[in-house]
Structures are given as C-alpha cells and as structure tokens.
C-alpha cells in the first residue's frame, strides 16, 4: 500500500469512527442536554473529549499492534470472554442501528414529507447498496468522508446564525454551575461507547495498517476521529445554546429539529433534515460494519458471507424500528446503553496490552495505561450511579 493509499484509508477510518459517533442520537442528546444544563454542558463536552481520546488511543494502538480484532484479544485474555464482549457490542450495535435508521427516517420525513417508516426503508436500501458494491471498503471510506464534511459544514452555519453567548459558554466549560452523571455517560457512550470504540481500529485491520511501525499514523487516526466528532459536538452545542438563549424552549417531540428551525426558520428545518439523514445513514454503515466485524471470526460462514450478513443486520434493524417506532426515545436510550459497555470493553483491552502472547514485545506506555484505567473506573462508577438513579423510583 502506497503512502497516499495508507493516508486515504487512515482518514477513512477516522471518518468512519467519527461518522458512527455523529449519528442521530448525537444530535438529539446534544440538544436535550444543552437545554437541561445550559452553558454548563460545555464542561460535559470537554470532559467527554478527554475520556474519548484516552479510550480511542488505547484501543486503536492495542488492536493494530496485536493485529487481532477486539473479540480475539478478549478470548486470548480469558477463553470465552471475547464471545461475551461480542454479545454486548452486537446488542449495543443493534440498538444503535435501530436509532440510526430511525434518525435517517426522520431526515427523509423532514425533507420529502414521507412517513418516518418509509424514510427508514429507503435509507436502509441506500446503506445496503454501499455494501453490495464490489469495492465496498473504498465506497464506505468515501461515503463517511463526504457525509462527515457535510454535517460539519451545515452545523457550522447554524451555530453561526444562532448567535450563542460565547463568553458564558467558555466560562461554564471550565467552571460549570450544573453537572449530570447521566449526561456524561450518555455523551461518552454515544461517542465512543459500544461498537464505536472499535469502528476505526477494525477498519485499519481490514486495510492491513497494523504493527508497531504504523503506530504514529494510528495515533493520528484515533485523534483525528475524536477531533472530528468533537468539532461537531461543539458546533451543535453552540447552535443549541444560541437557540435556547435567544428563542426559549425546544420542541420535546423533536428537540434537535427545533434547534435548526428556530435558528433559521423553514430553511433551517430542511437543513436539519439533511444533517440527520446524513448522520443516520453514515452511522447505519458504521454500526453494521463494526457490529458484524465482532462476530465475523467466530464461524467460517460469517467470514465467507460477510456482506450478506451485514445486509441482514440492516434489514433486521429496520424491521425492529418499524415494529416499535418512538425514534426520539430510542435515540436517547442507545447512548446510555453503550456507555455501560465501554468500561468492560476498554478494561479487557488494557489487560490484553500486557499479555505477551497477544502483543509480543510491544510495551504500551504506562501513562496511557494509567489514563485508560482512570477512564474504566470513571465510566464504571458513573454507570453504577445511573443504574441506581434508574432503580431508585422502584426501590
């Protein structure tokens, strides 16, 4: 692979991870938590960026040096553990994909006036078309780049015209007046939780960008992915903050749409349709690809018919959404679900980084490991706190 091809795949992997993270849930979660926490949500975003970067650097480095997908590393740490991790990630990926299809359906509903269900079916066909294409790897990379750039450009426009209070946002980002464990868990889970943690790293495995010699570019890819997702998160936060400050409450039925509509009228509403469709369809691609990559090595049939299994995954996700509906509630729930998975998956990867049979002579930097352990402990603590909050009305 030439240096130019290498760089193209690396950027494609970064956009795949970022596009997976910048899904419809991302839009809805950002709007909802900005309304709840105001400018103090900026602190949650900065905290999530730090946690995201640490998680991604650890995972991308360990997987590419080991030259094994995460489930095989987990099985090498403890027999059977990879199947458990794969089960969690697969279920989380399915939950995310239902939300992604819901978001894509909402986007076409806004743009074309068709029902959300019809929009979901059309979007599923588009996603399937990418995987049916004989050079699906290149198509996926290009699609992720185009959709990622489109989302950032449109969010930048809306953030500008909503005129957010920048001084207050900067102050509360380092000195918050409010805080929410649920917001952090949901935002981190929605950005690097579940399958998203592994989307870019597994793409690099397929492209054969592996080994210690590639660690510098792997680092660049991981940080680029977090950077792209973080820019989008900050733009959406500023847009929502500007709208809430200048126009008041958001529509609870579709909070993300009302950010764009209140900022730019009917044009803004149509822009929201474009953004949430782009977010939904690109996340469907990332979710389906990565979720199936977690079970692909378990049976020769899945390896042989990988594309067909991915297509089936998308069709099942679409069918479940059509059966249950309620897109906004789904989009809020999936981030929290995947936030629970992160401490388990990252913890296993950190253990694998110190097993010679997995990484041979490679030495993971101690500072990176310690930071990774801190993320595991923090996310586990927050997960327990959120579960206690959820159960407290019942107990």
Describe the overall structure:
With 395 residues, the protein is mainly alpha-helical. The chain has one domain: Amino acid/polyamine transporter I, CATH 1.20.1740.10. 83% of the residues lie in helices and 0% in strands. The chain is built from 17 helices and no strands. Helix 2 runs antiparallel to helix 9, helix 2 packs across helix 12 and helix 3 packs across helix 8. It is globular. The relative contact order is 0.22.
CATH fold-level name = Amino acid/polyamine transporter I
Number of helices: 17
H-E order: HHHHHHHHHHHHHHHHH
> How would you classify the helix and strand content by structural class?
mainly alpha
Provide the number of structural domains.
1
What is the correct CATH architecture?
Up-down Bundle
In percent, how helical is the residue content?
A: over 70%
Largest sheet: none
First-residue to last-residue Cα separation: 58 Å
Hey, roughly how much beta strand do the residues contain? under 5%
CATH homologous superfamily title: Amino acid/polyamine transporter I
Mean pLDDT: 80
- How many distinct beta strands? 0
Question: What Rg, in angstroms, do the CA atoms define?
Answer: 20 Å
Unreliable runs: none
CATH class: Mainly Alpha
Name the overall outline: globular
Subcellular location: Membrane
Membrane topology: Multi-pass membrane protein
GO molecular function, one term: metal ion transmembrane transporter activity
InterPro entries: NRAMP_fam
């Amino acid at each position: 692979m030439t240096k130019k091809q290498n760089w193209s795949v690396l950027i494609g992997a970064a956009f795949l991870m970022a596009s997976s993270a910048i899904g419809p849930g991302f839009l809805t979660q950002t709007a909802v938590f900005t309304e709840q926490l105001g400018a103090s949500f900026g602190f949650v975003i900065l905290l999530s960026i730090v946690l995201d970067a640490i998680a991604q650097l650890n995972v991308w480095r360990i997987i590419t040096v080991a030259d094994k997908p995460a489930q095989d590393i987990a099985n090498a740490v403890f027999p059977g553990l990879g199947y458990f991790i794969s089960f969690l990630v697969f279920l989380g990926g399915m939950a995310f994909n239902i939300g992604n299809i819901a978001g894509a359906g909402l986007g076409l509903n806004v743009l074309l006036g068709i029902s959300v269900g019809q929009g979901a079916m059309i979007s599923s066909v588009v996603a399937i078309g990418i995987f049916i294409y004989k050079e699906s790897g290149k198509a996926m990379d290009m699609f992720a780049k185009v959709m990622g750039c489109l989302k950032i450009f449109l969010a930048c426009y809306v953030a500008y015209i909503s005129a957010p209070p920048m001084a207050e946002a900067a102050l509360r980002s380092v000195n918050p007046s409010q805080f929410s464990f649920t917001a952090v868990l949901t935002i981190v889970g929605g950005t690097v939780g579940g399958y998203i943690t592994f989307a870019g790293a597994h793409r690099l495995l397929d492209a054969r960008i592996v080994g210690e010699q590639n660690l510098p570019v792997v680092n660049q890819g991981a940080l680029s992915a977090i950077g792209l997702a973080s820019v989008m998160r900050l733009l959406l936060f500023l847009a929502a903050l500007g709208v809430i400050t200048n126009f008041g409450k958001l529509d609870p039925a579709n909070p993300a749409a009302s950010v764009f509509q209140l900022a730019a009228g009917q044009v803004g509403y149509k822009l929201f349709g474009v953004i949430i469709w782009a977010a939904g369809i690109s996340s469907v691609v990332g979710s389906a690809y990565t979720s199936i990559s977690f079970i692909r090595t378990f049976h020769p049939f899945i390896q042989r018919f990988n594309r067909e299994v991915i297509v089936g995954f998308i069709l099942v996700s679409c069918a479940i959404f059509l059966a249950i509906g309620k897109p906004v509630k789904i989009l809020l729930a999936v981030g929290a679900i995947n936030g629970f998975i992160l401490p388990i998956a990252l913890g296993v990867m950190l253990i694998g980084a110190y097993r010679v049979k997995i990484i041979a002579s490679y030495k993971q930097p101690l500072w990176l490991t310690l930071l990774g352990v801190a993320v595991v402990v923090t996310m586990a603590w927050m997960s327990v706190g959120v579960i206690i909050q959820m159960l407290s009305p019942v107990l």
